[in-house]
Design goal:
Mean pLDDT: 90
Strand order of the largest sheet: 2-5-8-13-16-18-19
Helix content: 10-25%
CATH superfamily: Hexapeptide repeat proteins
Number of helices: 2
Low-confidence stretches: none
Strand content: 25-35%
Number of domains: 1
Number of strands: 19
CATH class: Mainly Beta
Length: about 180
């Protein structure tokens, strides 16, 4: 008797048209978020991107050679001018978010009505961004930097420094 509702629910899910269209939605999403922008981006030799890395506006993204971009990382260049440049030998851990576009805040307008400010992000060579780091528009991270997990980088970081926190602040130097 308890099997009857389970079988009925299974049957309902199989005849629901939304179930059958969902794979096509997923293919479309994967195409515009992963496949097409990746083909437009400049990606150096020996660089590996996890299959679920999300790229936006790939024609404004440059990634050097021998880099590793971890699972679920998002690299979002601006819609019109904001570029993202990543150096060589860079390691980007899972869930890192880079965005070259930020909204302004004008009183009386919803955030979607706000103008966007697009600024370049530059990440130098031999940089390591820990898990869940956020880097906002207009930031330069110098060669040899290490940014600790969960940090939010809102200002430039000098070469060979170690930064942590929200907002990220320099706490040490890489020897």
């Amino acid at each position: 008797m308890s099997q009857s509702p389970k079988i009925l629910n299974l049957f309902r899910s199989l005849i629901n048209w939304r179930v059958w269209i969902h794979p096509f939605k997923m293919l479309h999403y994967y195409g515009y978020s992963h496949v097409l922008p990746r083909a437009e981006a400049g990606i150096g030799a020996g660089t590996g991107l996890a299959p679920n890395v999300s790229l936006r506006n790939g024609s404004r993204i440059e990634i050097g050679h021998s880099c590793h971009i971890g699972e679920r990382a998002s690299i979002w260049a601006g819609d019109s001018t904001g570029r993202i440049s990543i150096g060589n030998y860079v390691s980007i851990a899972p869930d890192v978010f880079l965005t070259a576009s930020d909204y302004q805040f004008e009183k009386g307008k919803t955030f979607r009505e706000q103008k966007k400010v697009e600024k370049e992000i530059v990440i130098g060579d031999d940089v390591w961004l820990g898990a869940k780091v956020v880097v906002v528009a207009g930031v330069t991270i110098g060669d040899g930097c290490i940014v600790g997990a969960g940090a939010v980088v809102t200002k430039d970081l000098p070469p060979n420094t170690i930064a942590v926190g929200v907002p990220a602040r320099v706490v040490g130097e890489r020897k």
